[in-house]
Design the sequence.
């Protein structure tokens, strides 16, 4: 045992007033951001954080992560919550503990590099709304992408935490690119930029305990700023890595409250508190207080989220991460995408193609958004390439990466892939070498003009600028210009329980039509639930009458699932033999069938994958050449420019920007 962690006390107790350790390990709690992002598809609602917020403030965390990453996207898109409001609301309950956010540097909280004016406005508004610590990372570890946001963070008097994304190409630390020197040099760069603390960000849980020891020790010897370790549990190694990092002198560790811990999330805090109890690195936390918080979470909050937990596996450790070194979120995205395209049998090929694509794209770290970029391109290659041609369908983001729009890759991009990707690329076929945002036109004024009166303040404008399609939709809900759809509304604990009961009954085949009785009128309190059973999708209307849920109707929906649901399907326990409750007389379809090509002559362009229409590049009547981009489809957050299948005139356009489409839907017809 290292002398850093010797037990100093002879009598140990849990009491909060136990003697303070010489050098307590500081803890950042991730429950309200990375915790629910990792386990519950970022669906955590502010109202479900409030019941424990004040108690969490009493624990003594160094910081609480409350924002950033996918929260901004998910909140306005799926939860009908204003992301800015979450910071302000939680601040009313959490008065002592600083708030931390995850900032994707020039990517802000989106998936591409934004122009400098928007980046500055975003950081200013975030600081103004109450954010304290800006954990900043760049997916390529290209710190030129920090140059715009860092001075604004500093001007606002806030804490700049610089991240080094941990990634590797070998089974353990080492190799030609991501070796110990790489991390030490990155830390020096961050210190030179004025980092108030430095975080090793291990998003896939890849850092092995002895490598964590080596890196933390080397960083402590090299730089003065406090060192922070963020290591996901995914591979199962993180509790051991935490302990070795603590022995090497790490200053801050990231954990979650138990109900939000483990699997692809983070290790729980409680075992660490007990592990360090009575040592010179004792956290000083009150384990009883944490038990109380967990009790409230388990009783009042978790029932609303359990259906989102991937319960298809008994194991909480993902062995694939150890084998393929890819982040957990990325793997589940790949699996979801393949499943939607009926190609789950290709997962083996995807695993094989992935390291090849990654290397061809410059051996980049795999973290949002690069994990999606590499992942989706890999899936595209596996599904659409043939023996004569690779990279047949290149996503817009891969083209941007090849152009240099994300920054400098760890090794040069394969020149053939780069040339192919940049053929006809609108910014030019010659890649750039400067700081990416230097080639970006200011975009804030344009966004202001586009959104007009729908944006009431700068927060609205910034939201729209980062998420034009879904942001606009959200602002319409926010200001009562469009009805808020049921699926984005919150549900109460009672509703969650009633829904679970229904699911249980449906699986047991106990949902049957009432014989001989006339159905009662649908009342005002009728709520509809979408229930997914394997590939089938039912809409269930539920009305509470005298406290007992009454099934008003069960209706089998078209096999197509909306892209939103597809991004995080309501997980149903696998029950292959479950009777299908809706094998009853055919009800009328609730949704209009997707437009088909039948009534228009010409060559149809069918959606190669489910997704959301970003925009059409052409209108009806426009001339178009074969291969020219006709529509941009967003799938798994990547934009795919779909080429026209023929030369001619656009005869029909069947959807609008913002519409969700299923695989095979005819997007337009060219004749
Ligand atoms: Co994380």
Sequence:
């Amino acid at each position: 045992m290292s002398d850093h962690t010797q037990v100093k006390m002879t009598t140990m107790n849990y009491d909060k007033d136990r003697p303070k350790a010489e050098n307590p390990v500081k803890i950042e709690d991730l429950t309200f951001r990375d915790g629910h992002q990792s386990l519950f598809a970022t669906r955590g609602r502010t109202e479900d954080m409030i019941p424990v917020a004040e108690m969490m403030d009493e624990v003594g965390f160094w910081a609480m992560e409350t924002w950033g990453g996918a929260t901004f996207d998910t909140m306005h898109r799926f939860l009908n919550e204003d992301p800015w409001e979450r910071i302000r609301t939680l601040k009313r309950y959490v008065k002592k503990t600083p708030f931390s956010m995850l900032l994707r540097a020039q990517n802000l909280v989106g998936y591409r590099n934004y122009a400098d004016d928007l980046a500055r406005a975003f950081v200013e508004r975030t600081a103004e709304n109450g954010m304290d610590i800006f954990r900043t990372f760049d997916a390529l570890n290209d710190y030129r992408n920090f140059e715009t946001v860092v001075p604004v963070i500093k001007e606002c008097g806030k804490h700049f935490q610089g991240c080094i994304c941990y990634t590797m190409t070998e089974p353990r630390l080492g190799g030609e690119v991501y070796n110990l020197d790489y991390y030490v040099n990155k830390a020096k760069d961050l210190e030179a930029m004025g980092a108030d603390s430095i975080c090793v960000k291990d998003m896939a849980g890849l850092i092995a305990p002895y490598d964590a020891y080596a890196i933390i020790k080397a960083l402590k010897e090299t730089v003065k700023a406090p060192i922070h370790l963020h290591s996901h549990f995914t591979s199962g190694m993180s509790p051991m890595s935490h302990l070795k990092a603590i022995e090497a002198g790490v200053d801050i560790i990231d954990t979650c409250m138990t109900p939000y811990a483990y699997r692809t999330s983070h290790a729980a805090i409680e075992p660490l508190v007990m592990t360090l109890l009575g040592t010179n690195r004792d956290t000083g936390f009150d384990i009883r207080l944490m038990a109380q918080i967990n009790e409230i979470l388990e009783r009042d909050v978790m029932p609303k989220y359990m259906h989102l937990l991937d319960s298809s596996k008994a194991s909480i450790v993902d062995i694939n991460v150890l084998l393929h070194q890819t982040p957990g979120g990325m793997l589940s995205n790949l699996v979801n995408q393949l499943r939607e395209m009926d190609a789950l049998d290709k997962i083996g090929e995807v695993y094989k193609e992935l390291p090849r694509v990654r290397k061809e794209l410059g051996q980049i770290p795999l973290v949002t958004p690069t994990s999606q970029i590499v992942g989706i391109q890999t899936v595209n290659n596996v599904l659409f390439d043939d023996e004569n041609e690779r990279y047949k369908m290149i996503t817009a983001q891969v083209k941007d990466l090849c152009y240099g729009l994300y920054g400098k890759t760890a090794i040069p991009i394969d020149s053939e892939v780069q040339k192919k990707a940049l053929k006809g690329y609108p910014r030019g076929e010659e890649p750039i070498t400067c700081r990416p945002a230097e080639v970006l036109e200011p975009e804030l004024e344009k966004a202001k003009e586009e959104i007009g009166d729908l944006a009431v303040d700068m927060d609205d404008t910034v939201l729209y600028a980062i998420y034009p399609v879904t942001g606009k939709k959200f602002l319409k809900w926010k200001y009562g210009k469009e009805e808020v759809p049921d699926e984005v509304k919150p549900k109460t604990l009672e509703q969650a329980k009633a829904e679970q009961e229904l699911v249980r009954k449906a699986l047991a085949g106990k949902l049957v039509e009432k014989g001989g009785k006339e159905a009662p009128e649908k009342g005002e309190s009728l709520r509809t639930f979408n229930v997914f059973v394997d590939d089938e999708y039912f809409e269930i209307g539920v009305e509470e009458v005298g406290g007992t849920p009454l099934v008003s109707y069960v209706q089998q929906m078209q096999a197509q699932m909306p892209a939103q649901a597809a991004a995080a399907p309501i997980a149903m326990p696998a029950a292959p033999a479950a009777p299908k409750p809706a094998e009853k007389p055919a009800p009328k379809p609730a949704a209009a069938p997707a437009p088909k090509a039948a009534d228009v002559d010409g060559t149809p362009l069918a959606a190669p994958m489910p997704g959301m229409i970003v925009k059409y590049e052409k209108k009806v009547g426009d001339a178009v050449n074969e291969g020219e981009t006709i529509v941009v489809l967003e799938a798994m957050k990547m934009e795919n420019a779909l080429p026209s299948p023929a030369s001619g005139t656009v005869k029909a356009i069947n959807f609008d920007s913002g519409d969700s489409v299923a695989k095979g839907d005819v997007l337009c017809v060219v004749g």
Observations:
- Residues 206 and 325 are 7 Å apart (CA to CA).
- The chain has a mean pLDDT of 86.
- Residues 34, 203, 230, 232 surround cobalt (II) ion (CB under 6 Å).
